[in-house]
Amino acid sequence: MNVQLFIPCFVDQLFPETGFNMVKVLEKLGCTVNYNPNQTCCGQPAFNAGYWDEARSVANKFIKDFHTVDYIVAPSGSCTGFVRNYYGKLFDNSAAHNDVKMLRRQLYEFTEFLTDVLHVTDLGATLNGVATYHDACGALRECGIKEGPRSLLSKVKGLELKEMNDCEVCCGFGGTFSVKFEPISIGMGEQKVNNAVASGADYLISTDLSCLMHLDGYIRKHELNIKTMHIADVLASGW
């Protein structure tokens, strides 16, 4: 199976190892993985800030960069959810309408692709410790991803999965929300981290590095004994 990688901006710039681990997992499962180096942003930051014309320009480039019949896989529910749910608004009644429809069908968040397309849950990964899972808003609310990541984590050898309180509550990042409403964002992050720590977890895991980056900032500042991990990094562990 041919797969095109969509690597979001912050993964490319700050967490490239997660992208490489995603490739490692996909290739183990027999996928031929391709990466278009011309790809840039999906346009979500501009869209969320109200700059729809600028977002449309970026999104139009994205459509051209990913004009393919292959599956497109991304380590981000946020970016995947944005393309699926809001490109239709940007390109309604435009010449790109059919291209957008095809793109929305082909694009999958990483764990969703593993469980819903490849029908795989056991990657042979090993990670010793206790983990808790954070339902990122983009993955849960915009992509409907809930049980898939938990099924994948339940098969990781040595890993005990414990649910924390309010696992579905937002972590407070929200992109520009964390800049515009910093005190509220920090308070929400604090609540999320405290719930994770109270669960007894060694690892706080999610599908979205945007959430994890926000939470890790709080964890580091307060020197807490818990580590954030993207699920692709977990699934690539121990083999």
From TrEMBL:
Name by which UniProt lists this protein: L-lactate dehydrogenase complex protein LldE
Offer a single GO CC term for the protein.
Answer: cytosol
Q: One MF term from GO for this chain?
A: oxidoreductase activity
Residues forming the Cysteine-rich domain are 3-82, 132-216
| Protein source organism | Chitinophaga ginsengisoli
